[in-house]
Amino acid sequence: MTHPLYVAFIWHQHQPLYKSRSNTPLSDGDADLLATSEYRLPWVRLHGTKDYLDLVLLLERYPKLHQTVNLVPSLILQLEDYIAGTGVDPYLAVALTPAEKLSDDQRRFIIEHFFDANHHTLIDPNPRYAELYQQRQENGRSWCLENWQSGDYGDVMAWHNLAWIDPLFWDDPEIAAWIERGRNFNLTDRRKIYAKQQEILSRIVPQHRKMQEAGQLEVTTSPYTHPILPLLADTNVGRVAVSNMNLPQHRFQWEEDIPRHLQKARDMYEKRFGSAPRGLWPSEQAVGREILPHIVKQGFNWICSDEAILGWTLKHFFHRDGSGNVEEPEMLYRPYRLETTAGDLAIVFRDHRLSDLIGFTYGSMEPKRAAAELVGHLEAIARTLKHRQPGDGTALEQPWLVTIALDGENCWEYYQLDGKPFLEALYSTLSDSPDIKLVTVSEFIDQFPPTATIPAEQLHTGSWVDGNLTTWIGDPAKNRAWDMLTEARIVLANHPEATEENNPEAWEALYAAEGSDWFWWFGEGHSSNQDAIFDQLFREHLCAIYQALNAPIPENILKPVEIHEARGDHRPESFIHPIIDGVGDEQDWDKAGRIEIGGARGTMHNSIAVQRLWYGVDHLNFYVRLDFKSGIQPGKDCPPELNLLWFYPDRTMHNSPVPLAELPDEAPLNYHFHHHLGVNLLTKSIWFQEAGEHYQWHPRTSRAKLALNKCLELAVPWADLNVEPDYPLRLILVLSEGERYRSYLPENALIPIEVP
User: Fold this and answer.
1) Three-state secondary structure of 39-98
2) Does residue 251 carry a pLDDT above 80?
3) 293, 305, 279: which is closest to 469 by C-alpha?
4) Distance CA 539, CA 531 (A)
């Protein structure tokens, strides 16, 4: 029997629990605005109108294609609040206020927060919204406060909601009329827009149920409030992957909370979908042997995790070829059977790179090209599997399953028309393909039960992030939060009379505080302009535990877990996709690595013309941005030549010295490098060289992009450097004049780069 290549897409739909249960005021800043709202942030409502319904409606047009969608219980609860009209967030409360009656605080809030969206895709395409955004960016917030009239505020409030309505719904006559009109929106209009949002939200769960009953969709669930299950069992498991991890002062060890989260998720699911869930998406794909029996006992048949977990489990690093495809496909593209004390459980491991391409890179590409590239990767996987099977046949003789699993909401903000052209091109191609078949996970494991086995005690404890748990524990701020949670959990345990039946407020607050999202944002690694609100929400949930028990609230809960201020140097937080135009768009670079240069370090840098260096990657390019000090003119106040030199540690290859005269004999300037990209800042021309034998440099063609305007922006394709994925590089930047050395940056260091 021959088979197509089976592919399981799993879309994970999740939002943190923005609903507060505490009556204790913990915020500064927008305290009055927050006090009027039960919800602290609007993302359930806005993503609900943009990302959850359209994804499955679009799929429904291609009935041959089957997929899996994970709906987190805490997301469903919040959607239902908005549908019922009981969910109110500060953005909504302000938007439903007459423009002429806005207070100064409300006006400031609008100016600051009502452009919280990717401006390339959600703001710029709408002329009136773009006009107001440019006024804020070019003239400043104070200017807007002084000059905007009621009509300006009315339009900003309307567009902040209109822009988040998915293009799939633009054929609705009311929505089409609003978009065509573009301006002069009044309170009645904004109320109607909100009613349209509620209408879209109300269709999400019924549409998923309908498509599941029709057999095209499998809907799965996650632990109730999205906690990291291994850490609920024992925070000491953080040291499984990182042996020297700094742990919280107090060990959190409440394994009994795991079945509570799973049972509540299962009960919620059954009430809304009329059947029992078969699949479980463990929060952040975090797994470990301790949690498996609980999952089996709750009746789940399968779970999913990341290829890094499989690699750690099998003690095998997955190598990829120059195109990024796994060289050992037989190990990754199959389900495994986990043997536990409570019974067997199937597990699938996602292809991390294919998932990331959709999540972080394809949004910056032309949609049809991106779709064709993804299909090309799948076809390459099938070819490799065919060639590696006995007899080197021309058809697949075994059933293989490629799992692509990712966040199903945030990525579309970076795609044209919210991903509609990309998904249409992808689905159209896959519908016509006889060699690739999209299935739900349950469909596959029912027909082809896993034959490979992993003993439960062998399963590695970690998450999709590098196969460890450092995103949620180990940092000083994260550890402080765990200590606060541990203290509250002990207080609740010391009140045995407070059961879930007679004191649900205490238990719901505990479940909310155990969610993963707060720990994600604490400390190093991730940051947003709403970190202080996430900090506040976590502490509000803790406060609600004490309040429900009539217990005194500890003093430390009334103070922020950490100080939220502008950061200096930091490593990249995620993939970036900047438009190379020399403008230095703040949204394009907000997840990039950053190094302060001018005046930040030794005496040499006090006089350098560069103020700040930014760097980052996606699957296509490496990016660099240089911010010059005010008034700097290349060639006059700054050397006119910039040299980028790449150093490849632990790799045998030809390398050559920096091709400049008057070079100091000191590290890292005296290292030997393999690639050299030169930039003339006056002519904006580039040249590219590769090291050869006898310390020679040889010219090579480069497809690098350069722009110099308000700043210098540069994109260097990975194809120029010709290195395989997952390889570490190091970079130094050298300023020169007439091929003579002048200065370098960053001082006494190389910039670390990881090829994705």
Assistant:
1) ECCCHHHHHHHHHHHHHHHHHHCCCCCCEEEEECHHHHHHHHHHHHCCCCCHHHHHHCCC
2) yes
3) 305
4) 13
pLDDT tens digits along 686-737:
999 999 999 999 999 999 999 999 999 999 999 999 888 888 899 999 999 9
Over 60: is that where the pLDDT of 599 sits?
no
Query: Cα 231 from chain centroid?
Result: 21
pLDDT digits (tens, 9 = 90+) for 509-546: 999 999 999 999 999 878 787 899 999 999 999 999 99
Q: What DSSP letter does each residue of 380-424 carry, written as one string?
A: HHHHHHHHHSTT--SSB-S--EEEEEEESSGGGGGSGGGGHHHHH
Return left, alpha or beta for 115; rule: phi > 0 is left, psi -120 to 50 is alpha, else beta.
alpha
Structure letter (DSSP) for residue 358: I
3 state DSSP class of 221: strand
In total, the chain counts a number of residues equal to 756
Give 543-571 as a 3 state SS string. Answer: HHHHHHCCCCCCHHHHCCCCCCCCCCCEC
Query: For 669, which DSSP code?
Result: T
Q: What percent of the chain has pLDDT over 70?
A: 96
> For the residues of 2-41, what is the DSSP string, one character each?
-BPEEEEEEEEE-----B----S----TTHHHHHT-SBS-
Q: Helices 150-162 and 187-202 meet at what angle, rounded to 10? A: 10
Res 307: pLDDT: 97
Q: Dihedral of the CA atoms 361, 363, 366, 368 (nearest 10)? A: 90
> Phi and psi (nearest 5°) for 680?
-95, 110
Half-sphere exposure of 698 (CA within 13 A, CB side): 9
d(Cα 337, Cα 348) in Å, to the nearest integer? 9
Which pair of tokens denotes residue 575?
């993939």
| DSSP characters over 328-353 | -HHHHSS-EEEEETTEEEEEEEE-HH
Q: Given a cut of 90, is residue 111 above it in pLDDT?
A: yes
Strands 401-407 and 5-13, by their bridges, are parallel
pLDDT bin (cut points 50, 70, 90) of residue 390 is confident
- 37: pLDDT strictly greater than 80: no
